[in-house]
Amino acid sequence: MEVVILPTPAHCGRVVADILARVVEGRAGQPLTVGLATGGSPLLAYRELIRRHREEGLSFAGVRAVLLDEYVGLPVGHPQTYREVIRRELTDHIDIDDPDVHGPDGAAPDPLQAAVAYEHLVRDTGPVAVQVLGIGANGHIGFNEPGSSLRSRTRVKTLTEQTRSDNARFFDGPDDVPRHVVTQGLGTIGRAGHLVLTAFGSSKADAVAAAVEGPLTASCPASVLQLHRHATVVVDEEAAAALERADYYRYTLLHKLANQPH
Q1: Residue 140: active-site member
Q2: I need a surface site. Which of 131, 175, 192, 241 has the fewest CB within 10 A?
Q3: Active site includes 56?
Q4: 3-state class of 2 per DSSP?
């Protein structure tokens, strides 16, 4: 695992955008699937990708995207479905075809079956080259709450009250936040070639430290990144505040080989 500590959230956004842009530009006309997360952490990276598309000609034509998760019970087109959020934050502003952006069907009559169908879609659409991740204050990635199996597949999960409270700012009130979601499992996420987790702010410091330096445990789902062959954690100084080996991470970043990517 590589841990990249940068001065500000804006710096983090540019590095995450660099990683995505590199795989998009290097595909040489071959099929490419990327994994997208919603939430505040990836937003600066998405804005940077939009800027590069508009100002530098970065093209996403032919790229396919899969989303991490979706609320259960929100109607199609609801502004807080993650399919609509990713449209607003990224895909409506670049040249990726809307039918090539896939997410779980949270409005399906049978969410359990919808989860199985999405697991198959992610497998068949992949392999996912890069999966962008945020992290919750309780260590969740996707909506894999603490206690999730480290080998889990896409399924329906019940949100903790902490997660519902954290997300209430996007709804009219806390009671409007759905209790259930369809989420890629930790095992599903782990099939991606490169996991890129980004976080900033002091509220994420304990979760980042647990994920990076704590034990591998279902109590901190993001700790599953420790098992992955290619994982990069991109955080600002505030989110890195609880890392015991922060000085070493800064040292290794300073002394990377000239052609060594994240």
Answers
A1: yes
A2: 175
A3: no
A4: strand
